[in-house]
Design a protein that fits this description.
This protein has 114 residues and is mainly beta. It is built from no helices and 11 strands. 30% of the residues are buried.
Length: 114
């Protein structure tokens, strides 16, 4: 099990940018998959972006071209750069790690105003 601490959420106007950070309690070098999920009011949690230990990435269609997931192994941190934000991106964003067992961050609120 790995502990995940998220930061970087906040309030931003449509068209703006935010960068979310997910700091892990240990090395993320060998974690199979790390990713970001989000859950908007009245909706189910959905995958936003994921990155494997080999560097492969996957994005939800709704964020392709706008969001970028990356990792810094030296800092044990995964990032989600969010550009051209839309009101539809408003949600609680959760960091996730999977390596035989799931670990979740506490969630960070992102609010995009129109």
């Amino acid at each position: 099990q790995v502990q995940l601490v998220e930061s970087g959420g906040g309030l931003v106007q449509a068209g703006g940018s935010l960068r979310l950070s997910c700091a892990a309690s240990r090395s993320i070098f060998s974690i199979n998959v790390m990713g970001w999920y989000r859950q908007a009011p009245g909706k189910q949690r959905e995958l936003v972006a994921a990155i494997t230990s080999g560097g492969s990435t996957n994005y939800a269609d709704s964020v392709k071209g706008r969001f970028t997931i990356s990792r810094d192994n030296a800092k044990n941190t995964v990032y989600l750069q969010m550009n051209s934000l839309k009101p539809e991106d408003t949600a609680v964003y959760y960091c996730n790690a999977y390596s035989g067992q799931y670990s979740w961050g506490q969630g960070t609120q992102v609010t995009v105003s129109s």
